[in-house]
Amino acid sequence: MTDIVKKNTHAQLIIGDNTYELPILKGAEGDKAIDISRLLKDTGFTTYDVGSKNSASCSSSITYLNGDKGILRYRGYDIEDLAEKCLFIEVAYLLLHNKLPNREELEEFRTLLEEYALLHEDMIHFFDHFPPNASPMSILSVMVNTLHNYYPEMGDDPLLNINNTASRLISKIRTIAAFSYKKSIGHPLVYPRNDLSYCGNFLNMMFDTPVRPYTVQPEVVAAMNKLLILHADHEQNCSTSAVRLVGSSGGNLYASISAGINALWGPLHGGANEAVIQMLEAIYHDGADYKKYIAKAKDKNDPFRLSGFGHRVYKTYDPRGTIIKKACDGILNVLNVSDPLLEIAKTLEEIVRNDDYFINRNLYPNVDFYSGIIYRAIGIPTNMFTVMFALGRLPGWISQWKEMREDPATKIHRPRQVYTGEPARIFAPLGERL
Questions:
Q1: How far apart are CA 396 and CA 302, in angstroms?
Q2: Which of 45, 140, 246, 272 is the S-S candidate for 256 at Cβ 3.0 to 4.6 Å?
Q3: Distance between CA atoms of residues 299 and 59, nearest Å
Q4: The architecture CATH gives domain 82-411
Q5: With contact defined as beta carbons under 8 Å apart, do 276 and 368 qualify?
Q6: CA-CA distance, 124 to 139, in Å (whole number)?
Q7: Among residues 233, 312, 242, 311, which one has the least CA distance to residue 75?
Q8: pLDDT tens digits, residue range 179-221?
Q9: Domain spanning 5-56: which CATH class is it, in words?
Q10: pLDDT interval class at 111 (50, 70, 90)
Q11: By the 8 A CB rule, do 229 and 101 touch?
Q12: Greatest C-alpha distance within the chain
């Protein structure tokens, strides 16, 4: 991990008659932070930062994100290069090992993924006990957590077998995801095949049936590779923070990843791509009345919000959104799919990008805006969209967990609060209470 560079400069905090010197830390790309690690001890004060918008919870060498300039890099590589020129498993290897694999390393990694693709047969019976309408995300979370019972090799030294554990988890999660879909529609399970690529294997497990064999199309595989790469990591977001939070307690990798899946499930995080499709469908069925929905979005008293626009960090166009938009046009042309929601999306984007109300609020399309349309074209149902997000994000979660456990400075996460309840009260026995 790249060390934070400590400068000889300090920030000054003045409280009453006292002045405190707080070290200023500088990161590898010039990002700066004020070190408040001794603030409570030295001053008796904590900071108040709802949602941690202004707080760096850790140092990390995995992902660099500059929201003002629309820059996203994994281990120093621009997301545009990785999405255009790499396979997803290459990027997974990069996140885990801080280097792009050479041919030999990639083949070794591919072999591990093939070896670990099958689930323990006992685990397959678990799918029978979920109700048919169970959320695929709930199934994913439970099954990932259960892996610890079947593969407890992490033991006392969780980092000793981390490469095998990471490979096992990255391989098995796609099998779990595909099996959960098959169970939800009452189809027989399709087992993984070693002659197919990582993404091709997943697509085959999802869509192959005894009566209609599935043909793996290279263009669809390429589109899925791109989508998974774009979702592979994104700094200290909600789900990644959940992974680190659970891991900081000494929680094992499987439990930590399960926590990340649950955090991702929320509609304000990974569930946003489902919300985009629902919004586009609503506009389509309402006769493409854009004026109506633009007005609703501007009305502070209306709960409607434009899904897929804006981002907590990006103040300009999400670089992933640009890549996905181009990929969306390409895959629909290849598959000869005419999706009216794509035209709805493009028109809505054009309106928003030329409206001062949205421009002044930095509301640009994000990664969720076009991804759902690609998944629809591939045949993936809406309730599986967030599962697809989780498949992509998994290498990032594992890398973040690994980095945290390797860092000797890691402490259990224990935020403070500003108490707003009742002051001390005198206790009254039951018979004396009014």
A1: 36
A2: 246
A3: 40
A4: Orthogonal Bundle (1.10)
A5: yes
A6: 12
A7: 233
A8: 999 998 989 999 999 999 999 999 999 999 999 999 999 999 9
A9: mainly beta
A10: very high
A11: no
A12: 81
Q: Could you tell me which of 150, 167, 166, 149 has the C-alpha nearest to residue 158?
A: 166
User: Catalytic one among 17, 368, 407, 413?
Assistant: 368
CA of residue 407 relative to chain centroid, distance: 22
**Whether 31 is catalytic:** no
Give pLDDT, residue 122. Answer: 94
Token match 């996460």: residue? 413
Q: How far is it, in rounded angstroms, from Cα 234 to Cα 96?
A: 14
- Domain-by-domain residue ranges, the chain? 5-56, 82-411
Identity of residue 318:
D
Q: Is 133 helix (H, G, I), strand (E, B) or coil?
A: coil
Which tokens in the block code for residue 67? 């929201």
Residue 167 tokens, joined: 């490979």
Which of the following is catalytic: 10, 311, 318, 356? Answer: 311
Q: Report d(CA 287, CA 258) in Å as an integer.
A: 41
Per the annotation, the verdict on 289 as an active-site residue is no
* Nearest residue to 90 (alpha-carbon basis) of 170, 144, 164, 161: 170
pLDDT tens string 373-414 = 999 999 999 999 999 999 999 999 999 999 999 999 899 999
pLDDT value, residue 1: 43
